[in-house]
Backbone:
């Protein structure tokens, strides 16, 4: 059996994601589609709008055969570590290809880009540090350094987050010499109509904005979502009484920061260069999460970077924890969130060749690092009413979802 | 000017407290009554029903001339450290007497008791450890050990919390050879009527129960409270939209525990003997603070002891912090919460003889340990709505209350 890997967040799963699965299957002829998905918190540092279990159900219903969880320590990171964790998870799962969306839909731009990068690494690094020293944010400094070595072109604009991630996947595959074919398909944009799949495509960002602003699954948003996503969104809201967004965590986060010592705050991953003082000082005046973020934000500390830092504070993620995963040859484990019959067959045929533990339930997980997921989930569900928190937290201890 | 010291919590200030002030003034002829009061959290590990600033106003209006804050690290402790911190604070403030309530109203029972204790210390210690080894709680083991050396009598029953504290004050004065006269007045009990002061006396416990159960200042409870306490209770509730009790902190506390590592939890003051596992395990099922406490409680870990531990978790109080104050000759500072004109005159005459800093506002406090009060207050106010938290927290940075 052949497997193709996708790197996803499904926040929430929409018609564009369904197209991505179908197009990847067609392009590769794979028998099994494996999605490695972020869990409770996402790459840009946000809490997922609904939990990973409900998102897994939507994904399985729309064509994914296996949903694996990208460990928190890789998931809530800038593109390099995020790409490394995702690609290495898929490698352990034995995929022969990884397929991602890009503007161009042409993988040669990425592989050629990689060669350019390798041949000009010293020049890239010095340009990067020059920009960082000027006070630029990492993404902006990196974009300028890429341009400096002639890597950012019309065909692969490394200012676009999706291209940065795609380039990260290719880089991670080639750097580690993994037996995986990188593939890319053209992203279909909002407004593009592909009748074979759907009547409407909208970005996950615009879908979330609409959901959170109206607190409803409106008719407009329904057009961009598969039926099962609508079901899962409504089911989650009915049970949990909320969809998740940062603002709901403000009180918890504020409480936490206000009772931490400076050195405890400085031990949190991402809190560098005296940022602990800035976070604390601004906390005294902030009346909302939004106000707080605006008070801290600088050119160097972008919104995304700060959101990630706040996720690390909320989940109590220390520099020490992140150091445990840095530079490792492999991910510490693979966690299975859900599978179809096809996924199950694939997994049975593959299991014996895995070099790391396959975790099917945290209740029996013997991998200390996997407990981080439970902690992240505990933080994630903390905004639920007391009687619901326990019920939702227990999902972590259940066997994988079968579809 | 002569000063008499009282050791108080005023949770809330009631008619019995007003009587205590008046009787102490009469018994000592003191010009100035100095109350050392616990701040946001109390000796039995509970959050104060209204904050220290509103309680200070009530105390000043009813006869106290100076209100000093007992530092959190002494306030939320078993009787020995609580007594030590209170007595040493009053000693720095220069009181010539300390007056406390007791059943007997006869100080000779306490001073004779102290001699008995000193002469039988080894015997007390071995009886104490024998009982602790049997699994008794500290208060019960201590009571049995006191009985063993013939110290608990009808006249001074050391099973009664107030007598334990009173004995603690006397012990602290005599152990440290402080130039302070210990005095005791007979406690007037609930139901006792002293027309000169009031129509009704009720215990602070029963007053709190009535306030929290009805969420109102009922006619019944009003009879036990001076007018100013009623004003402060209503004012607080109108502004903060709550009175404080443990149940309101359940979500914060639960969030905090669920995101701590075992070793972080074990670093908290009071979390010993593997209690961290018991706290975490029970957290998974607890639907309320009450349920959680019941699940952890044992003969050895009494309700009070557990409440103190939860206060330390909520305020992030570590063993390391508590070790900083243990065995010190003096308290690290004196913090002034409020004063009358008389109190101000007294303080001016006394200031130069103080060996430790006098803190009048945390905004200018140059004593690292004083920042602990800000942290404890931050935790205390965390249950308030976002727009109110900031306003209430800022009180910590204001100058003392003048009455």
Residues:
């Amino acid at each position: 059996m052949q497997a193709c890997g996708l790197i996803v967040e499904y926040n929430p799963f929409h018609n564009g994601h369904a197209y991505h699965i179908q197009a990847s299957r067609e392009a590769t002829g794979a028998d099994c589609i494996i999605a490695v998905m972020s869990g409770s918190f996402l790459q840009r540092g946000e809490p997922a709008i609904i939990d990973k279990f409900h998102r897994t159900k939507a994904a399985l219903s729309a064509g994914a055969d296996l949903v694996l969880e990208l460990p928190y320590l890789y998931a809530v990171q800038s593109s390099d570590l995020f790409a490394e964790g995702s690609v290495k998870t898929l490698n352990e799962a034995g995929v022969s290809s990884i397929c991602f969306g890009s503007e161009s839909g042409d993988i040669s731009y990425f592989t050629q880009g990689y060669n350019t990068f390798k041949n000009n690494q010293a020049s890239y690094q010095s340009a990067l540090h020059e920009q960082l020293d000027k006070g630029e944010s990492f993404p902006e400094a990196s974009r300028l350094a890429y341009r400096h070595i002639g890597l950012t072109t019309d065909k692969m604009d490394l200012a676009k987050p999706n291209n940065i991630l795609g380039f990260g996947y290719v880089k991670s595959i080639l750097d580690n010499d993994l037996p995986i074919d990188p593939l890319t398909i053209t992203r279909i944009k909002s407004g593009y109509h592909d009748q074979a799949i759907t009547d409407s495509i909208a970005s996950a960002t615009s879908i979330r904005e609409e959901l959170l602003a109206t607190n409803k699954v409106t008719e407009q948003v329904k057009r961009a979502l598969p039926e099962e996503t609508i079901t899962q969104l409504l089911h989650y809201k009915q049970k949990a009484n909320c969809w998740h967004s940062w603002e709901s965590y403000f009180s918890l986060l504020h409480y936490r920061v206000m009772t931490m010592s400076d050195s405890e705050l400085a031990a949190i991953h991402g809190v560098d260069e005296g940022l602990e003082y800035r976070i604390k000082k601004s906390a005294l005046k902030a009346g909302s999460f939004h106000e707080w973020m605006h008070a801290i934000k600088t050119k160097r500390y972008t919104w995304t970077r700060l959101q990630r830092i706040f996720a690390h504070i909320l989940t109590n993620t220390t520099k020490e924890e992140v150091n445990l995963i840095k530079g490792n040859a492999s991910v510490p484990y693979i966690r299975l969130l859900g599978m179809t019959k096809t996924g199950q067959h694939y997994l049975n045929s593959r299991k014996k060749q895995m070099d790391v533990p396959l975790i099917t339930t945290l209740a029996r997980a013997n991998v200390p690092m996997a407990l981080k997921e439970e902690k992240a989930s505990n933080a994630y569900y903390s905004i639920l009413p007391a009687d619901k928190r326990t019920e939702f937290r227990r999902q972590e201890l259940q066997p994988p979802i079968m579809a």
Summary: Residues 191-198 of chain A have pLDDT under 50 and may be disordered. Residues 246-323 of chain A form one domain. Strands of chain A lie at 3-8, 32-38, 66-70, 97-102, 181-186, 334-339, 358-359, 401-402.
